[in-house]
Amino acid sequence: MRRHVRPYVVKFGGASVAEPDRIVARTRALRALGLPTVVVASARGGVTDRLKSVLEAPHDTVGHRRALAGIARRHPGLPAAGRRHLERLARLVSAVEDRGGADPPLADRVLSQGERLAVDWLTRLLDEQGIPAVAVEADRLGLITDDHYGRATVLLDRSRPAVRAGLLGILRQGRVPVVTGYFGRSLEGHVATLGRGGSDYSATAIGAILGARRVELIKRDVSVLSADPRLVAHALPIARLSYEEAEELAQFGAKVLHPLTVEPARLAGLEIVVRSLEDPNVATVIGPPRGPDGMRAVTLLSPLSLVRIRVPGGRQRPGVVADASERLSEHGINIVTLFTSSTCLSLVLERGRGRRAREVLDPLFRSGPAVLEGPLPIALVTAIGDGVLDDLGRIPATILAQGEGLSATPRSISFALPVPGGAPAVRALHRALVEGHDR
Ligand code: ASP
Ligand code: MG
Q: How are beta strands 371-384 and 297-310 bridged, if at all?
């Protein structure tokens, strides 16, 4: 590798791993451009789901055999190293059966096997096509995470020395490292997964550590659109998003990216390209903001739960928002968004969490004047785009009239609406802010 050429990281998703020829072609094309290329791979389609199902039914030994056979079939022609991973997986599954379940580190070890198999399978494929490749397991490489199993965060500074030494060494030999996505090694030294869809995040973390010029996330049938095409038939592809816009999109329901994916890229100032495997010309670039460009996307999360804390006379004691959100997070309940005034605090929570939220909040308010109300099922409709507040005048009156509340930032406006109003509101907002909007 020439010193001044910054590496290129390309991640192939679970679905696209089903398309070996295209993976080979893309890797070859990048190398032909003289770009030292690092491949990050997630498990082949359906494999992580099968591993999850084993963990969810620890006594279903018949189901486990079927899952293992299905996983083996997804990796034809595995080299010896990969076959050892299959054997190890069988042993891990036996351990889950013996213990009648898995603690979080064991569960993460089981879940990580899908990526280990995928990189062995993919490395063999690249080698056969004349692209010298090396399988790399991220935990062994030294991608370090915190100890939150199942939703770990990558510790970039801790990971930097070993990840750079390992991957740049392979690149210098003119070979392609094929690195497992989705997990790393916790500070305690166990396997820790990053949450479903976490290979995107692995790719940007590795890109940031290597000082990559770009991270390309290749997905099948996925492009970043102005709305869910099941709701808006003529949703438009989005060519460019700022980091912040992309984060809002991930937060408010466009399941295109793992929610932490953008952060390493923003820190390192590297661009993310989300590219479709079928049509490489369809791509969205996520990068530094270039000022408001009229890009708008509309998302829907439904149903969610709304719980209201009403404070008659507005005599809210200081710190009530902090107390409420702390109690909820202690009990593992996420706040999707909240609306607040001096007399009312509305918490929008994930689906089905409203009743539990009331139970854990109740002791906080039992002795004061505040009244807890709800839970109420709601739809949360969000319009996203840098400078979206300029569009306030175009928000259809029907949406404003039904709103249970709204919250806004310089790049998003969210409306809580009655559930049946959600999908029509997405279409109305799309019409008002995306179609017929002078871009
Ligand atoms: N294989 C993992 C999952 O299915 C990670 C990923 O696909 O990015 O969630
Ligand atoms: Mg923009």
A: antiparallel
Same fold, 8-220 and 297-435: no
C-alpha 121: how far from its chain's center?
24
Q: Tokens 């997630």 belong to which residue?
A: 42
Residue whose entry in the numeric block shows the structure tokens 């002791």:
363
Mutation choice for ligand 1 from 54, 196, 202, CB with most ligand atoms inside 8 A: 196
Which of these, 258, 158, 161, lies nearest to 204 by C-alpha position? 258
Nearest ligand atom owner, CA of 238: 2
Q: Which of 10, 42, 113 to mutate to test the pocket of ligand 1 (most atoms within 8 A of CB)?
A: 42
pLDDT digit string, tens, across residues 226-251? 999 999 999 998 999 999 999 888 88
Q: What is the CATH topology of the domain spanning 297-435?
A: VC0802-like (3.30.2130)
For residue 197, give the ligand 1 atom closest to its CA: 8
User: Cβ of 305: how many Cβ atoms within 10 Å?
Assistant: 23
Q: What average pLDDT does this structure show over 93-99? A: 97
192-206, 229-243, 250-264: range with lowest mean pLDDT: 250-264
Q: Check: CB of residue 403 under 8 Å from CB of residue 337.
A: no
CB 339 within 8 A of CB 333: no
Q: Span 374-385, mean pLDDT?
A: 94
How far is the C-alpha of 87 from the C-alpha of 239, rounded, in Å?
44
Q: Which residues pair with 305 in a beta bridge?
A: 349, 377
Give the C-alpha separation, 122 to 142, whole Å.
21
Coil/strand/helix, residue 319: coil
Domain ranges in the chain? Answer: 8-220, 297-435
Identify which of 172-186, 214-228, 243-257, 295-309 has the greatest average pLDDT.
172-186
Token pair 């010193």: residue? 3
- Decide if domain 8-220 falls under CATH 3.20.20.140: no
CB atoms inside a 10 Å sphere around CB 291: 7
| Ligand 1 site residues, Cβ closer than 6 angstroms | 14, 42-43, 48, 114, 181-182, 196-199
Rounded CA gap, 207 and 37, in Å? 11
| pTM assigned to the model | 0.88
